[in-house]
Structure formats: C-alpha cells, structure tokens
C-alpha cells in the first residue's frame, strides 16, 4: 500500500501539493489525471523518495519512505516520462540488470529476474539488443522491465504513452493489464483516459495540488469537466 498523509510540498515557495491524503491499495490499478502543472509528477516522485514532503508523510507498505529509502525504491518501481533518459546501460540485459545488481543480489538471481522481467514485457531473449536500436515502444517496455526486475509491489509510470504510436501504446497497455492481473499495483499519469479507463479500478484527478476527483472510472468520468482530461465518448 502507498499512503500519503497530509502531504504538502512546494517548489521555491510555490505550493504544488497541498495537504494531500491518499492511499493506494496493493493490486489497485489507478489512473492519475489532471491538467499540466496540477502536481501529478510531483506526487509520483514522492512515492520512492525522489522528493520528500515539506510536511506530512508518505508510507510504502507501512514504512515511512524517509526512514527506509531502499525499501521504498525496491517496492515502488518507477518509469519516467521519457524512458530514454532512464537507461543506464547500452544493452537491454545490462540495463534491466542494473537495479538488481545494486541490491547486491547473487548473479543467478539477477539473471532470473532479468529473464522474468523481459518475459513480462514480451521482450524475452532480447538481452543483447542495443537500446539505441529499439523502437520507442520497445524502449518503453524495457524501461518497464527495468522497474519490474526490482520485483516491486507497485509500478508507478509517468505518462507512459507519450510519443508512442498506436501498436506500441497497445502493447504497453496489454503488459500493464497482465501485470495488474498478476497483482502488481499500477499508478499511472495520463491526460487521456480514453483507452485506459476500462482497465482501471480507480481514477484520481488532481487540481492545484489537491485531489479533485477520486472514484471508480464510471463515477469519476462524469466529474472531470474543466480538469483538462480527455474522456471516452459517453
Ligand atoms: N524542478 C522544479 N522546480 C520548480 N518548479 C517545478 C519543478 N518541477 C515542477 N515544478 C512546478 O510544479 C508544478 C507541478 O508540476 P508537475 O510536474 O508535478 O505537474 P504535472 O501535473 O505532472 O504536469 P504535466 O501534466 O505537465 O506533466 C508546476 O507548476 C511546475 O512548474
């Protein structure tokens, strides 16, 4: 479970998260929507301690993030908006292995995780491919594999569909659906709910650093007017 308890955060004295409380259950598939600048990315970056609240607390599986950064970073896999900026190695296998290597795991366990993570994103056997030669969709899936290799309880993705064409988008969506079905909690930001909200358990929309709407998609969709979110035709 990821819990935000009265979290406030400001960049240079400009409030971005305002007394925000929220909890995300294990296995829940949550869409985080809202206008540009409403605070979505800032919220995500609190989930594994990339940012720390000015006040309030974030807990992952019961432990305050600030108390145990390694536990938070192992439990919450993070996939950033531009996966290209996230890669640390030249080949797929080396990149996906990087996180487990940093946990100090045995080689055999690292290899097992890399194999499983690449299978989970439909990239099995592509360890030796150079990342620069992959398509955008394949790069997104490798970035997801890198997060999965940490065997997180939650996967947090910032606009994972940016720049992807329809087949790539579909492929990433299918992977996320399969992961959610296997019990991984998913939290993803998007401005466009049109083909994701069928997969989600819950839609949260932010406005000015606060939760403006929170509920199951059917209930939330009717309340999003004015929040700059594309919704399916109803
Ligand atoms: N590093 C930073 N320094 C100063 N201000 C920042 C920084 N990062 C974000 N902000 C500001 O914080 C506010 C919230 O930004 P954030 O990226 O969380 O919004 P968002 O909802 O993810 O937006 P988008 O949909 O455009 O990605 C914005 O006003 C932004 O300008």
From TrEMBL:
<keyword id="KW-0067">ATP-binding</keyword>
<dbReference type="Pfam" id="PF00005">
    <property type="entry name" value="ABC_tran"/>
</dbReference>
<comment type="similarity">
    <text>Belongs to the ABC transporter superfamily.</text>
</comment>
<dbReference type="InterPro" id="IPR003593">
    <property type="entry name" value="AAA+_ATPase"/>
</dbReference>
<dbReference type="InterPro" id="IPR027417">
    <property type="entry name" value="P-loop_NTPase"/>
</dbReference>
<comment type="function">
    <text>Probably part of an ABC transporter complex. Responsible for energy coupling to the transport system.</text>
</comment>
<feature type="domain" description="ABC transporter">
    <location>
        <begin position="2"/>
        <end position="233"/>
    </location>
</feature>
<dbReference type="GO" id="GO:0005886">
    <property type="term" value="C:plasma membrane"/>
</dbReference>
<dbReference type="InterPro" id="IPR050095">
    <property type="entry name" value="ECF_ABC_transporter_ATP-bd"/>
</dbReference>
<dbReference type="InterPro" id="IPR003439">
    <property type="entry name" value="ABC_transporter-like_ATP-bd"/>
</dbReference>
<dbReference type="InterPro" id="IPR015856">
    <property type="entry name" value="ABC_transpr_CbiO/EcfA_su"/>
</dbReference>
<protein>
    <submittedName>
        <fullName>Energy-coupling factor ABC transporter ATP-binding protein</fullName>
    </submittedName>
</protein>
<dbReference type="GO" id="GO:0005524">
    <property type="term" value="F:ATP binding"/>
</dbReference>
<keyword id="KW-0547">Nucleotide-binding</keyword>
<keyword id="KW-0813">Transport</keyword>
<keyword id="KW-1278">Translocase</keyword>
<dbReference type="InterPro" id="IPR017871">
    <property type="entry name" value="ABC_transporter-like_CS"/>
</dbReference>
<keyword id="KW-1003">Cell membrane</keyword>
<keyword id="KW-0472">Membrane</keyword>
